[in-house]
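Annex B. Sample input.
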Amino acid sequence: MMIGTDSHTVNAGGLGMIAIGVGGADACDVMAGLPWELKMPKLIGIKLTGKLNGWASAKDVILKVAGILTVKGGTDKVIEYFGEGAIALSCTGKGTICNMGAEVGATTSTFGYDDSMSRYLKATGRADVAALADGIKEHLTGDAEVYANPSKYFDEVIEINLSELEPHVNGPFTPDLATPISKLKEVATANGWPMKIEAGLIGSCTNSSYEDIARAVSLAKQVSAKNLKSKAEFMINPGSEQIRFTIERDGFLKVFDEVGATVFTNACGPCIGMWDRVGAEKQEKNTIVHSFNRNFAKRADGNPNTYAFVASPEIVTALAIAGDLGFNPLTDTLTNEKGEQVKLDAPSGDELPTKGFAVEDAGYQAPAADGSKVSVLVEPTSKRLQLLDPFAAWDGMNFTGLKLLIKAKGKCTTDHISMAGPWLKFRGHLDNISNNMLIGAVNAYNGKTDSVKNQLTGEYAGVPVVQRAYKAQNIGSIVVGDENYGEGSSREHAAMEPRHLGVKVVLVKSFARIHETNLKKQGMLGITFANPADYDKIQENDAIDVNGLTSFTPGVQLTLVLNHADGSKDEIKANHSYNAPLM
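Annex B, continued. Sample output.
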């Protein structure tokens, strides 16, 4: 078992681990030897039968699962994949599935240890680990009786036949809107989605394995072989220097270059908005397809009108070649430079490099053997780095007169709460990065982003601007949200920023797991409506009291008084998931 400070820590489930994403404060506790606690998850068993073939890939497994479970269907649950189909998948394919398990809210996803993991360990210089695991492999997977009668042991069971699995394209704006490729043209036309594809992107932390790149290259080779020309921009983000070095050695980068593709640096890149996309500031309606996990509004390029769709690297490559969202490579043909109708052959590629992985400089720099003599010096005038000051302790009293900062409507992910992209340069400066707090959240009262009412002046301004005005007057505030608030990244700034700017309470219909924990660890009061319909009772000019904190007790609801501007009041109940200290 391991925990890591990224929602994609769950990738390690592809190597049979129980790997859970957490915020930095949780990780610090563990490193300091303190206990780490987690609500006991339920279990979802996903039985995979058959074997992938043709255009279908491991990515399509999790795209289909996302469509079944939705973005919150895995919350407080562990997903275990099993069956003959699971064993037939490559280790990196398993990692892709587990990686995107974060998008259904799962605590983690995992596979039992099998030969594909042994092969991967040996190929990546860990033959000794493979030998140890091989010696006890019967203990590194579920018991036979569990898999024979899964409904008896799992809280929920889903079965997927890989032999019949169709490639899926998920989106736009949410990773759980799943559409089989055969239905995509019909659905896209009915919804008015832009059909012309402007860009196709593959790689980043998921779908940048050797197998993924090899299968994409097998399609890229067909561009020249079949006298085609790629219609959309095509970009590749290698997931590591080892992958980049190996695929360059094996000639893959040369193939990409020949079709006009751009190879970015080994980083998250466009997945988190680190992409200087020309023209994005015009906010024109357009479509892109990518193999990343997340496709929230504004995430890739800051443009709210970019319709981003998630697919496998193979489908992304094919759609980039066609330049048409309605193109189905399984059945459709393309007109080549000679005016001929040609059909793309199904992708193929080696699971692991036949000549082994290679790298000259993996980029790892070990910490100092003795850290006691290391000092961190930060210029007081720096705009990018800032030493942290402790947050003020709670005074032990109920909260009274909290101003409503924003009532967020609909999806409010950590990207909406604390955007990435150009803001990442301020990750080391809490005050500066706090200027992006909730600027992507939609205000329920006017349908706008970064536009909320300042109750002190009656004027509308940006969310951080209004909150700083409240903080200057030592006035506490409250944020109200919808379902699955804080979906997406483990981004701790999404919890640190409201605490830094003086928000006292976050009240929502439901939380995503990591964000709820992060709020608690930063000293925020994170609570949920006992009756979700009470969300509608919150009015724009409310001042809100939170009672029951002086006798705060696990399992006991809090009472909130909504003091409306017309002098009337509403009293509602709120639940919390705080428990007694473990020690």
